[in-house]
Amino acid sequence: MTAHILVVEDEEILRITVVDHLRSQGWAADEAADGSNALERIRDKHYDLMLSDIRMPGMDGETLLTLVKKLSPQTEVVMMTAHGSTDDAVRCLKKGAADYILKPFDLEDLSFRIKRTLEMQAVKARCVSLEHCCGHRQPIIGSSSQMQGVLDMVSRVATTDASVLIRGESGTGKELIAAAIHYESRRADKPYIRINCAAIPAGLMESELFGHEKGAFTGADKTLVGKFELADQGTILLDEIGDMPLELQVKLLRVLQEKEIERVGGRAPIPVNVRILCATAKNLSIEVEKGSFRSDLLYRLQVIPIKIPPLRERDGDTSQLTDFFLEGFGRERGMTFDLSKEARLALEQYPYPGNVRELRNILERASVLAPSHKIQLWDLPVETHGGRTAPSLITERLADAVANAEKLCIRRALDKTGDNKTEAAVMLGISRKNLWEKMKAYDL
Question: Could you tell me the CA-to-CA distances from 187 to 1, 94, 195, 349, 387 in Å, in that order?
């Protein structure tokens, strides 16, 4: 995206010269003749960078810097100063200015400083984004027609700034789809902020989303920048949007309509340019009927609705996901895991009420508890196979089936008794010596 720069300089010839040069470099540049005019512009529009003189009639550059940092914290500020006022420039650096340049200056030197400042701004935005999504960005696995339809929709909507409502059961991967939309969009190098509306107490959510001013309420000992300001120029994901309180839904509607926010205790609106993605496991149409969700907000959020199918409806994806997760767990433990035919078939037939998240948890548990790299049917949780080998899964001789059942009983007894062999033998109705021999035979 083209960077927007505001030049604040009372000397008209210098101001025009700098603005023309910046535009020739490909930046979008606006001008202001004094601090008051600059504040008006910043209230109406987001600027990536402000280039301001320190000594100006009326409001000086130092005061302007303080007000701009309060009004638009993400705007970087570069100060222009004469040779004799370097002490003023140093004070400005302590108050949040990114850099300063001495007058008279070379225009190429100015361009270099602005490029460096904008690059550092991009790095900081990237760090904020990584703090929020580190460990959560994963490839989307699935070649089923159902998932390919979802991915096709992601590719089409990513190039727009339209609001997207992502629906799906818990554990289907709504956050992954939201991340894919952001990282395929024009905002990919801007912040990506995630917030879970169900995880924040209602009394704190407004402050989390929109920030607050110092002294706005008891305990507000400093100004807090909210998630919407952090996401400026980027994307925000409102996860579990169906749990947002009604009074905050009104304020979110205003953000969508006016593209501005107000901090708690603030007096002036702050313009923000944020793409909003929402995710929910609830049917918001039903929530509207219940009176717990605003219909006008629902219409604004679901400009583009995306429905993620549950894992049980994704033909063939379970096996692909199983291999992907086992490879990852094996890499962590320095092993190569594999599944027996019976275990794989059981996993493919299980309905997964917890969807992909449940499959991952099942495989992680099996990779930790299985006695060897070959994961067997009895290494899987009981719910995946009903605690017994189903007729459709029997492929071994009777002797092998009996041995497998015996091994499973011994393992469960040991698990229940915390590996206390004496108690396990009593539970199984055999002697401790007999238990020891069977454990040795089954390599337990």
Answer: 8, 31, 18, 40, 50
